Amino acid sequence: MGYIPEHLLENLRNYKYRGADKSLVSRYVLNPFWNWFVTLWPLSVAPNTITLTGLCIIIFNFATLIYYDPLYLVERDGYHEPPHWVYFTWGIGLFLYQTLDAIDGKQARRTGMAGPLGEMFDHGCDALNTTLGCLLANRALGLGRSWWTVASQIATLANFYLTTWEEYHTGVLFLGYFSGPVEGILMIVVIYFITGIFGPSIWENKIWTVLHLEHVSYLKKVPNIPLNKALIVFAIIGLAVNIFHSYLNVRQASRSSFGRPRQNSSYPPLVLLMPFVASTAIQIAWLSHPEYNNSYILHSASFVPFVLAWGFQFAHQVGRMILAHVTSAPFPLFDWIWIWSIIGAVDANLPHLIGRSPIFQTSPRHTAYVVWATLIISMLAYARFVTLVIRDITNYLGIACFTVRKKDEHGVWKSAQPEAKML
After folding, report:
1. What is its EC number (predicted)?
2. Three-state SS at 422
């Protein structure tokens, strides 16, 4: 069984990528560098290979976190401080990821491999990087296992979901003057470097104290919170601004011929934001359950696998959204992969719901079993989704995922589509 209905396969040939990047940093600083950097790659290297290489760098960064801070993953209240040089490798790795994520589209244009497969592959890797990057950034900020890390995860995933929701309705991937893939990543790179120099404790300093504004009268009513928490607050404010601008773009597209308004959806665009709200509410319900026999997840060793399972479920969710975008299919309102987290959330909240103890999560060890099982199932489900989608697209279009198409006797790329992925 595949994820693409047979009657929608033809829409793959009609797919055209369109993007709009208003970032001044991208236009005047990074894009000239990216145009040069892509020329270093031979034409025999497939764009998806470059994309996957970038994701592998982030996975390596996460592996160094677990290696140098094993207590983050195995002990309830323990931490090991990684060597300061590790944070520099995270910064370099994230910058390389951003660079490779930017040039894979340019490589697709050079090799004639632009199309729906590249769109799916690129967004799929980005979705996984979102959660891994969130865990790394919050560890560098010294937030660790806390509600602040959860808030950061929600804000990060919400931005990604919002961008995908907007692209589904408008047919255009919008990046504003300040966007996560450009300025957001550069800010995190700077955070890694600062942490590498001063250590995570630097972010515990109060924001107004650092700015020498603690004596300003009109700021005394504003909490003087630590720098790391202030960054999360700013991210949430930025999310609110992005929601507003995305809504305006979708509204404009629905009232004009610009973009690609969805006629096959019987729901208003704002209603289609509810799947993210629902999936997030499920995770919060599980995290905020009444503590029973010290089985609380948030401050335990189960927190990291919990967030990773959340990330795989989110990647599956937005992956289906992107697939609906490239095949002009109806918007996916429900994702069966949530069932595992629903079971965990209901079981953990049984003391609150019906006044009885949980069925499965009766101890920290049993809670860890449920969380790890959810992670494994979510990871396998997403791997199955990726495998089947790649199979369906490559078989139908007659292309390969990691092999560059050849030119015919006239110098034209075989099976190449006229559109080109620009980002």
Report:
1. 2.7.8.2
2. coil
Alpha carbon of residue 53 to chain centroid? 16
| Tokens representing residue 83 in the block | 């060597």
Which of 187, 186, 279 is closest to 234 using CA atoms?
187
Q: Report pLDDT digits (tens) over 390-401.
A: 999 999 988 888
Question: Confidence band (pLDDT; 50, 70, 90) for 286?
Answer: very high
Is it the case that residue 34 has pLDDT exceeding 70? yes
Average pLDDT over the chain, rounded to an integer: 86
Sign of CA dihedral 21, 24, 30, 34: positive
**How crowded is residue 410: how many other Cβ atoms within 10 Å of its Cβ?**
5
CB 114 within 8 A of CB 105: yes
CA angle 131, 147, 352 (to 5 degrees): 110
Domain boundaries, the chain: 6-397
Give percent of the chain above pLDDT 90.
48
The helix or strand, by DSSP H or E, that contains position 13, with its residue range, turns out to be helix 11-14
Q: Match 């970038």 to its residue by tokens.
A: 54
The answer as to CATH 1.20.120.1760 being correct for domain 6-397 is yes
Task: Report pTM.
Answer: 0.90
Query: 3-state DSSP helix/strand/coil percent for the chain, to nearest 5?
Result: 65, 0, 30
Return the half-sphere exposure (C-beta side, CA atoms, 13 A cut-off) of residue 134.
30
DSSP 363: S
Asked if the model's pLDDT at residue 305 lies above 90, the reply is: yes
List of E strands, 114-227: 173-175
Quote the pLDDT of residue 91: 96
Say what the pLDDT of residue 88 is: 97
Q: Which of 7, 123, 169, 289 is catalytic?
A: 123
For residue 123, indicate whether it is catalytic. Answer: yes
